[in-house]
Please model this.
Amino acid sequence: MDNYNANKEEMDKYSLRGKVFRKIREDILEGNYSEMEELREAAISKSLGVSRTPVREALRQLELEGLVTIVPNKGAYVTGITSKDIYDIYIIRSYLEGLCAKWACEHITEEQIDTLEEIIYLSEFHIQKEHWDQIFELDNRFHLTMYEACGSKILEHILSDYHHYVERVRKNTLSSKERARKASEEHKAILQSVKDKDEARAERLANDHIFKSIANIKNQGLEKLMKKH
Amino acid sequence: MDNYNANKEEMDKYSLRGKVFRKIREDILEGNYSEMEELREAAISKSLGVSRTPVREALRQLELEGLVTIVPNKGAYVTGITSKDIYDIYIIRSYLEGLCAKWACEHITEEQIDTLEEIIYLSEFHIQKEHWDQIFELDNRFHLTMYEACGSKILEHILSDYHHYVERVRKNTLSSKERARKASEEHKAILQSVKDKDEARAERLANDHIFKSIANIKNQGLEKLMKKH
DNA sequence: AAATGTTCTTGTGTATACAATTATTTGTGA
DNA sequence: TCACAAATAATTGTATACACAAGAACATTT
Model:
């Protein structure tokens, strides 16, 4: 699983291992490798201009994320992520985002509420202007802040991972003004229920929010959404 | 996210890195380290009689599992797992085991059904005889087979991880004849609904199964259960 | 010609050496 | 005695070298 929190991700930025790790992961998630392609340590280290050590460590981590399969004494192979995996993740997320919103009712801080309100406010502006990159970034921040607000290290960890896994698909789904606007409305409603400490409603709305994304994906065709933009 | 499947775990058995990885993980999960204790690469490698390389790789993997926190250029620290984490995991599992049972209705194979029936049959025998180790092992196998049967690599992955995380607690809860017997009855009912392809019922029963474990934990006191047996 | 054994190549697994960074101690001046 | 700076020690980060395992190609034997 992935990087645990922004803090660590930030720090890792300055280690070679972190750079290699993120580079290979991005390449896999963006589909730059074909399925089951062999990842030779020497080749990667040469192409990135580093030694094998950081490459090895990065590959071992990617194995744990499930993106790479390592056969001892043989090599590392791209496992990648199939469209079924993405679909499964969305279903799992729909359950867990519901739980997250429910727990947030109890654990959210004033500061987090302020952050979320600001995010929603800014979103509306950027949706109006069709600034897709900002919209995506704000959507990210909304969800990650919610994960933080649930007060569970474990739940935050797993949801952040999944969130990252489906990043490419999410980026594409949000590139429609109509869907972006609806998503923003849904965020607003979720936050309201959390503020009201209405656990049942918060859970249901967060649940629905992801389900609506799934419906949206089905309409647009998942395979198309997995392509690079 | 932990080891992906039995296959890989099996293969890793023969690499130093795998041994070191499992050794440190067990030590952490068994509470042999105190919270935030520093893990010095040199010390560990010396005590295990290996070089720093496999130790480093193991620590990097443990970081991804969330059991260790690595501060670049400083060191690795035990993060461990608190009783709140365990509690959270049980709640999350109750949702996901439900989903797993639901999906199993559609994807389970005849062979897997046979396996599960055999497990239940054997369990009854060992419960009668109070063979705690076998009971625990069979409980493990029941759940892991269910995870396999759900037909989702992603869900199987995360549930296996969590299952392992709470191993120590599960071992202790199952060491009561009364609870073991009830658990076995619950397993039987879940399998029946899966065989009947009754998705709603399977989901609800699997859900309840974990909830009952939580209730059981609360009764016995989580702190006590986290101790080594 | 088929099966078996042998070497050679390729790539990973581990150990060690060195560089960079951080923590600690020591020394100096006010 | 305290503050602060410089030197020193400890620890991680990276690079490189060598050992080992697996598989392929080729030779050998029946």
